[in-house]
UniProtKB/TrEMBL annotation:
The keyword Nucleotide-binding belongs to this UniProt entry's keyword annotation: no
Lineage, broadest ranks: Eukaryota, Viridiplantae, Streptophyta, Embryophyta, Tracheophyta
Molecular function in Gene Ontology: guanyl-nucleotide exchange factor activity
PROSITE patterns to which the protein is assigned, alphabetical: PRONE (PS51334)
Region feature Disordered, mapped onto this chain: 1-59
Biased composition (Polar residues): 12-29
Entry keyword set: Guanine-nucleotide releasing factor
Name of the protein in question: PRONE domain-containing protein
Annotated ranges, domain PRONE: 50-407
InterPro entries in alphabetical order: PRONE_dom, RopGEF
Organism of derivation: Lolium multiflorum
């Protein structure tokens, strides 16, 4: 042992003297020093330099940290007291959206680095859906030509349909935000000059010229708002469908009263069960002056809907969930309640999540549902925010041009009328719509179609005019929409945390 230590120290001193001689003579090259610094044969990489350790983290390091927190269930102690994987993933998407879009308060494109971060990190979180599979029957041909049917794995059908649709909605929203580049007809007050005194006091005040916006810019803003509105409706439809498919937690059912009348109250129950029922007149008769009252009405109606469904599923009249009212009546009451929920969703899209939605998200164990719900919810919130910014500009234009309150209300009503929400139908409309249009592109649209048609009938229309006639202008006329008979759930936003 002594001989080994002596020989080891002797070899070490000889190597140090050899290196000193090379350094003094200048004959050693950088490659020689590099080779000497590398460990020989131990298979371990050299430690990183202090500059590399103190520098910015790489994408791999960030991804490792994010997925490590997901595996720990947001419990850094490692004691296993964290939340479920589905809730951790839902919170990760929500927190990412809040950090990326939380400070975006103007109608302007996103910063390139912020946009790149959102696309990259949301792609990491959505990559989990690639490994959520189900068994599907497939045909396989053997070498001898015989065909047999076997079960193979494929991505779950709801994820296969909705994840690409949501990614497209995401890209479209960011594209619409990019359209507001180099706008000169409206601007925002600087931080110290902001004197907004309404309910959005923290938002910057938008300014327009004294004579208001030009007609082309006003039409273009309305067109952009309609495009964003289409994205909002599609995201709302997907989110509502996912929440409907989520299982109602038992802890929520246990907290409900045994009668829907107890949850609704005498006045609301009497109105819903009346023979002559009009949902619009019902909402006009209810006090919805504050967000708290709107949310309270949603909670009451959703609770009564769950109670009635429970009673319809229970045939034992002696049970606490039994019902003495006929099945047809209960079904009619449920449809009326869901119609009211749908109208509340359209009339007050910025309200927080209801108690039923929070319970479903909190106790959900399906990772696929968690991804679809959280991603559609943040897109829904972003689309609503962009629409609110456009409405701020149009409101400032209305104030500059001295529009009356009735004219402003009529314009808002034309843009916000109730419409049927169907995810597949909304996505088909989005596929047919132009992907993006800046103000410069919009100014090229020809609005005087009557004159071109007159020239065509007279036979004096040239090739350029015929091309302009074939070019379809955006439809700005109000559309007629129908109600949804059965669609429950409310608007969710990242601000309403669970």
């Amino acid at each position: 042992m002594v001989r080994f230590l002596r020989r080891h120290s002797l070899d070490k001193s000889n190597s140090q003297s050899h290196l000193r001689q090379q350094h003094e003579s200048g004959s050693g090259t950088d490659s020689d020093h590099t080779e000497m610094a590398e460990p020989a044969g131990n298979g371990r990489a050299p430690p990183r330099s202090r500059l590399a350790r103190d520098g910015p983290p790489s994408d791999l390091d960030i991804m490792k940290e994010k997925f490590a927190k997901l595996l720990l269930g947001e419990d850094m102690s490692g004691t296993g007291k964290g939340v479920s994987s589905a809730l951790a993933l839902s919170n990760a998407v929500t927190n990412l959206a809040a950090s990326v879009f939380g400070e975006h308060r103007k109608l302007e494109p996103m910063a390139p680095d912020t946009k790149e971060r959102w696309k990259k990190e949301v792609g990491w979180l959505l990559s989990v859906s690639d490994h959520i599979v189900e068994f599907v029957p497939t045909r396989q041909t053997a070498e001898n030509g015989t065909t047999m049917e076997i079960m193979s794995t494929a991505q779950r059908r709801d994820l296969q349909m909705n994840i690409p649709a949501l990614r497209k909605l995401d890209n479209m929203l960011i594209g619409y935000m990019d359209n507001f580049v180099d706008q000169t007809e409206f601007w925002y007050e600087k931080g110290g000059d902001n004197k907004r005194d309404d309910d959005k006091w923290w938002m910057p005040t938008v300014k327009v010229p004294a004579e208001g916006l030009s007609d082309v810019t006003r039409r273009w803003l309305q067109y952009q708002k309609e495009c964003v509105n289409q994205v909002l409706k599609a995201a709302m439809a997907i989110n509502a469908q996912v929440l409907v498919e989520m299982e109602v937690p038992e802890i929520y059912i246990e907290s409900l009263p045994k009668k829907g009348k107890t949850s609704l109250g005498d006045t609301i129950y009497r109105n819903i069960t009346d023979e002559e029922f009009d949902p619009v007149e019902f909402l006009e008769s209810v006090d919805l002056s504050t967000e708290h009252k709107v949310l309270d009405l949603k909670n009451r109606i959703e609770a009564s809907t769950i109670i009635w469904k429970r009673k319809m599923q229970t045939k034992d009249t002696k049970s606490s969930w039994g019902s003495i009212i006929s099945f047809e009546k209960r079904e009619q009451f449920e449809e009326r309640a869901e119609t009211i929920l749908h109208l509340l969703k359209l009339q007050f899209p910025g309200t927080p999540q209801s108690q039923l939605d929070i319970s479903k998200i909190q106790y959900n164990r399906d990772v696929g549902y968690a991804l679809l719900e959280s991603y559609s919810r943040v897109l829904e919130s972003l689309a609503y925010s962009v629409m609110s910014r456009i409405e701020d500009v149009l409101g400032a234009d209305a104030a500059a041009t001295n529009l009356t309150a009735s004219e402003v209300a009529r314009r808002q009503m034309e843009m916000n009328m109730p419409r049927k929400l169907d995810a597949r139908e909304e996505m088909e409309k989005l596929n047919e719509a132009p992907a993006s249009m800046t103000l410069y592109d919009f100014m090229g649209w020809h609005f005087d179609q009557d004159e071109l048609m007159k020239k065509k009938e007279e036979g004096t229309l040239d090739e350029a005019g015929e091309a302009m006639l074939l070019k379809k202008a955006p439809s700005l006329a109000p559309k007629k929409f129908s109600y949804v008979d059965s669609l429950a759930g409310g608007m969710r936003s990242p601000s309403a945390r669970h």
